[in-house]
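Data deposition worksheet. Section B asks for the primary sequence of the deposited chain exactly as it was used as input, without tags or linkers unless they were present during the calculation. Section C holds the resulting structure in token form. Section D is free text for depositor observations; keep each observation to a single sentence. Incomplete worksheets are returned to the depositor.
Section A, Depositor: J.P.
Section B:
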Amino acid sequence: MRRVTRNLLVAIALVAVALLALGALPSYLGGGDPYYLTAEQVETDASAIDVNNVSERRYPFLTSALASDDGRSDPYLADSYGIKEWFTHTPFDEVDALTRQLPEAAADGGVRVRYEGAVYRVEVVRP
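Section C:
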């Protein structure tokens, strides 16, 4: 094998390992404050997004908030530098995605959703 070819293959391997590390590293970052997605039941006739059939894989924070007894999702630990948000799924992503589906359902920094006949106000909070 020629030296140039070998060096190219080594460079490609190093780039592949670096990209894999960047994909795994953000899940280990988490020294910052915890954020929670909360779901609080509200009485309103305003428009709300039907989330009865949402996927747990696409909306893990929303489904855990709706399934919990206290209406709070599993914590999302942000990192100190903001790098983790670029590579991982956040509760902010879920609220943004829901707001884009039905902009009329946006409510005071959160969004209204309809789940099993009840309307909930879902927002990201930091205790």
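Section D:
The chain has a mean pLDDT of 85.
The helical segments are 3-28, 60-67, 84-87, 91-101.
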